Amino acid sequence: QSALTQPASVSGSPGQSITISCTGTSSDIGNLNLVSWYQQDPGKAPKVLIYEVSKRPSGISSRFSGSKSGNTASLTISGLQAEDEAEYYCSSHSSGDALLFGGGTKLTVL
Amino acid sequence: QVQLQESGPGLLKPSETLSLTCTVSGDLISTSDHWWGWIRQPPGKGLEWLGIIFSRGQTHDNASLKSRVTLSVDTSKNQFSLRLNSVTAADTAVYYCARQFGLGRWYLDVWGRGSLVTVSS
Lengths: 110, 121
Prior knowledge:
The complex is a heterodimer. Chain A is mainly beta. Chain A has no helices and 9 strands. Chain A has strands at residues 9-12, 18-23, 35-40, 47-50, 64-69, 72-77, 86-94, 98-101, 105-109. The radius of gyration of chain A is 13 Å and the shape is globular. The mean pLDDT of chain A is 96. By secondary structure, chain B is an all-beta fold. In chain B, 0% of the residues lie in helices and 50% in strands. Chain B contains no helices and 11 strands. Chain B has strands spanning 3-7, 11-12, 18-25, 35-41, 48-53, 59-61, 69-74, 79-84, 93-100, 108-111, 115-119. In chain B, strands 2, 4, 5, 6, 9, 10 and 11 form a 7-stranded mixed beta sheet that branches. A 4-stranded antiparallel beta sheet of chain B has the order 1-3-8-7, with no helix packed on it. The N and C termini of chain B lie far apart (40 Å).
């Protein structure tokens, strides 16, 4: 099982919107709507932002949204803020009942 | 408020067995609908899912680790554990325990703070 593919880095200015892609296969992302996204600050544990493609846990800002098309999932952050600068990981259920992670994307707020 | 806390040795020699325990508070493993899992992160690298266990002992694990992983649960102590045998330097990582929400939901909603394990001779 290979890791999901994410861009290594993205950047944006405060107030802008950015999108992070996460590409998998028909055995993982394209199979079921079980994609989630995590935010990780340096030295901290990851925190779930999105689950089941587009659902937000209680307490997560509506500026974070998720979507999926075919074998690619996306995380969009609107109204970018300095505090959004972090590492972002996607994950997906994979056939054989395993969980795959993407390689991570570093978001820089310019 | 659910909290998870990893514990175990921080330094191992090559070929030894890594053993970590996760203590859960605020939720009862024995009656919970959730699964309990382990994820690791080598220094400066991404996340790798190791496996999950349910209260009755059912497990799913990462096939790429070629059966080096053993998961167990102790409901009397409200703990679950990870054993990884024959460690090498490549197993050096921060090891997180986490709660995998619900049955078939496949996302991790509560994480421990992580425990750094270094493998070095």
